[in-house]
């Protein structure tokens, strides 16, 4: 046997990747499943179903935007914990973790009071008016009470991921999802003579309770299973400044991401209530796919940071190839399943004929872009684990303002309506995936 063939290529095993990826997939899809269940249940109420569905979609998008922006400390703490784990220096971040949790809690309180006060102004900016605007305000003011629960939970989930453990987050998310769905049916429709039907407000209350349950479980695992504690040190950890810097760049990146989602929903709302109802379904399915595929991105994030800390560059390069392959396969399987049940999927969320026609006319485009999304999400996850927040920020700013927005304006002008939105998203994802692959090859292929 030649010496070349006898040398084993340094690789992260399939088992090691999936030990992190599979629980992360299950944990990741729990959040969009909560939103999808809300939409499916709300979209089938007995009266004003289209307006209620539109309001839930608008509020859901805004909530996701705020949470994604503020939860970037989750990614930052995950990267720092995984890198210190790889270099056997976890003690250096022991005081950083409780400081990060407190930071998330304080941010959540600030955002709640500001946004709840300006709810009417915020949702008017989405072109919501009349009954839809009324529904968005009442629904949001309840849902927003869950900000502290969600953002503290996310910070703790980041610590778990940095420790190469996504199983604890999965358990929390599964229980939270089950509680949310059960309470949705109970509170939205009510029980005659026992619990009044609360409709949209009932769905909001269910979500807040589910988020509180997830936080309680996360704290249990954090205190009992991790080497960290909740005791605050008044001496700022030296890693707090790099964490805030990383989180700030990721904040700007996620802000650009959510500007794209805001523009999409704003244009759809302007087209009419049937369009924003169809867009709400399409967007939530797209997010479900994204969180599903993001399980492997989480593996890339956790393992990539650890390999960088250990300076194992060849294993890092091989990791990028393997998880990209797995993610594309998952994306194709999901798209294939949805293609088989193309017409039936829309009926789960709404029975309005015009909404279903609009949904079906565009859904194929959402499915077509999934393999491209998979590549972009994979390298997003790896770059976050490597601490490459500045490059991720620049890519999203470029993709949003020089890719998504001009494409949306052009095709909207040509009268493509919902097609304009999803063609713009396709261009957006192509730019992101190409830019990340090129950068990674240039920097880490040579190092390996």
Automatic annotation (TrEMBL):
CDD domains in alphabetical order: MATE_DinF_like
Membrane topology summary: Multi-pass membrane protein
GO BP field: monoatomic ion transport
Localization, UniProt: Cell membrane
A GO cellular-component term linked to this record: plasma membrane
Keywords: Antiport, Cell membrane, Ion transport, Membrane, Transmembrane, Transmembrane helix, Transport
UniProt keyword Iron, yes or no: no
Main location: membrane
GO function terms (MF aspect): antiporter activity; xenobiotic transmembrane transporter activity
Spans through the membrane: 20-43, 49-71, 101-126, 138-160, 172-191, 203-223, 243-264, 276-297, 323-342, 354-379, 391-413, 419-438
Pfam short name (any one): MatE
Protein family membership: Belongs to the multi antimicrobial extrusion (MATE) (TC 2.A.66.1) family.
Protein name: Multidrug-efflux transporter
Taxonomic source organism: Psychroflexus aurantiacus
């Amino acid at each position: 046997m030649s010496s070349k063939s006898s040398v084993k290529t340094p690789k992260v095993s399939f088992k090691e990747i999936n030990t992190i990826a599979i629980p992360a997939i299950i944990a990741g899809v729990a959040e969009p499943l909560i939103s999808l269940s809300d939409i499916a249940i709300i979209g089938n109420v007995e009266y004003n179903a289209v307006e209620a569905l539109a309001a839930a979609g608008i509020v859901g998008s805004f909530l996701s935007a705020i949470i994604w922006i503020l939860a970037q400390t989750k990614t930052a703490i995950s990267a720092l914990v995984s890198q210190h784990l790889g270099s056997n220096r976890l003690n250096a971040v022991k005081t950083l973790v409780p400081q990060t949790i407190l930071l998330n809690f304080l941010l959540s309180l600030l955002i709640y009071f500001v946004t709840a006060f300006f709810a009417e102004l915020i949702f008017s900016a989405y072109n919501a008016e009349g009954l839809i605007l009324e529904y968005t305000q009442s629904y949001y003011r309840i849902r927003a009470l869950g900000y502290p629960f969600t953002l503290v939970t996310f910070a703790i989930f980041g610590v778990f991921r940095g420790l190469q453990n996504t199983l604890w987050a999965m358990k929390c998310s599964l229980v939270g999802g089950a509680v949310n769905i059960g309470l949705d049916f109970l509170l939205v429709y009510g029980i005659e003579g026992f619990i009044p039907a609360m409709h949209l407000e009932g769905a909001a209350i269910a979500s807040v309770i589910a988020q509180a349950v997830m936080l309680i479980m996360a704290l249990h695992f954090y205190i009992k299973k991790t080497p960290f504690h909740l005791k605050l040190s008044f001496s700022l950890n030296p890693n707090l400044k790099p964490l805030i810097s990383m989180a700030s760049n990721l904040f700007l990146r996620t802000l650009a991401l959510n500007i794209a989602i805001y523009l999409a929903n704003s244009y759809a709302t302007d087209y009419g209530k049937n369009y924003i109802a169809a867009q709400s379904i399409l967007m939530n399915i797209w997010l479900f796919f994204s969180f599903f595929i993001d399980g492997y991105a989480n593996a890339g994030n956790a393992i990539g940071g650890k390999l960088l800390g250990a300076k194992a560059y060849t294993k890092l390069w091989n990791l990028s190839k393997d998880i990209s392959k797995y993610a594309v396969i998952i994306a194709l399987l999901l798209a294939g399943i949805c293609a088989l049940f193309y017409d039936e999927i829309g009926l789960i969320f709404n029975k309005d004929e015009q909404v279903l026609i609009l949904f079906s006319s565009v859904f194929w485009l959402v499915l077509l872009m999934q393999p491209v999304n998979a590549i972009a999400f994979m390298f997003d996850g790896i770059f976050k684990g490597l601490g490459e927040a500045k490059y991720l920020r620049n890519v999203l700013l470029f993709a949003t303002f020089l890719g998504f927005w001009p494409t949306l304006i052009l095709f909207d002008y040509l009268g493509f309506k919902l097609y304009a939105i999803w063609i713009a998203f396709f261009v957006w994802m192509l730019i992101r995936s190409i830019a990340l692959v090129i950068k990674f090859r240039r920097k880490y292929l040579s190092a390996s």
